[in-house]
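I am going through a labmate's work and have reached the protein record below. What it holds is a sequence and that sequence's fold in token form. Please read both lines and tell me whether the tokens look consistent with the sequence. Do not assume that whoever made the record got everything right. Thanks in advance; the entry in question is below.
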Amino acid sequence: MLFLPELLKDWPCTVFGGEFRINVNGVSECSSRVQEGFIFVARKGGRMDGLEHIKEAIENGAVAIVVDRATLQVDSINVPIIQVPNCQKFLAYASAQFANNPSKRLTMIAVTGTNGKTTVTHLIGQLLQKLGIQAAVIGTTGCWIDGVKVEADIPEMTSLPAEFLHPLLATCEQRGVSHIILEASSIGLASGRLDACDLDIGILLNIGLDHYEEHGGKQAYIEAKKQLISMVNTMIVNEEDPLCMQMIEGATVPITYFGEHKIADKIAPNLNIPFPGYYNRLNLFAAMSALILLGYRIEELIPHIASLRLPEGRLQRLERDGVTVYIDYAHTPDALQAVLQTLCGVCYGKLITVFGCGGERDKGKRKEMGELAVYYSSNVFVTSDNPRNEDPSAIIADILVGFGGDCSAIEVVPNRKNAIRQAIFSAAPGDIVLIAGKGHEKTQHTAEGIFPFSDFDEAKQALTEKTYIDIKDLNKG
């Protein structure tokens, strides 16, 4: 509980009407989450306007309303109206205050980049755990403390809204966690979800094609990522990504670089890295760089490298009767190319790819992902990903443009379950099936609703049902 004037004393605002000298218990931008004694932040979002939900918020117990526009008619509202310059920033500030600012006492590491955020955060968490440090990883796959997923009332988002994030940080602190590693998405940075976090280390992995349309273009996307540089005490940057190097020009915080030569030449040449691929090596080096910046020596890290594991849905492997299936979250051109290149290097038979593209997301990447899939794969099954409210056939049509006309190696199977089954049933011993795009996800978003769906479970079932006919037996017949 906080005294409202005390909460607002350091925040620029103007207060209209209602009783101002009151105690408040919490803050939310969602009217349905408002409880007795809460402040309701009536923020204007991309699809909804909080002003339309003030009545519901007051009915649920809101004792004050925060706005950042002067268009609100206050005559009919009997609680104080607090006008601030920016609702998003106020929400982050107030959320931190109500949680007693846990980020000030925790060691906070934020990882951004188009690809690899989940992998790098989990690798850092694993390394810290092996070194006896209690750490929490927060991001796309939820919240994990010491490698165990925590059941928490939080949305499935890469970067949590501030009203969820700060209470979760407080919970982690209460459970003895000292280090937090979190994913910082471009949307999360642009919308101010991390504004009130005291961040110690930031990591910039790469910049690729994703979320351009949501930000209004490539440069706006880059500027959103770039915000992290001004929010941290020190940065770790991929020296092998030209855009990353451009982004840090003029940075006023200390910069540490990672890449093949920054760490590779300092470790044993026969180091056993337990997962394949150039980009996973870079992800590992980014994670090791964070540990080195925290004061650990490379010699302390090397004994633990072989036991590291990729997170769920990242090159997650299944195998039966000589057929190998990989489930991977690759949903951008860069990520898809990286995983296809990696699997080409270990595939001795056919490489069969199952993928689609998400609806209501960047349409520009669909054609490019189609081109990459057919270039690297022997066969491609084009299917639905999370079409959301977009017509799945229109998404598939955009992908097919990348194939450049008729191609016998391409098969369109809109139903994702059927596409996975057909791909696996078509595979012979020595073949690899890649199921790309959804990775760890347990649901599929369609215009009809959100339904349970797991690529891993569907692949496992298909492998179980797959049968092989011995050619010798056929010949005998």
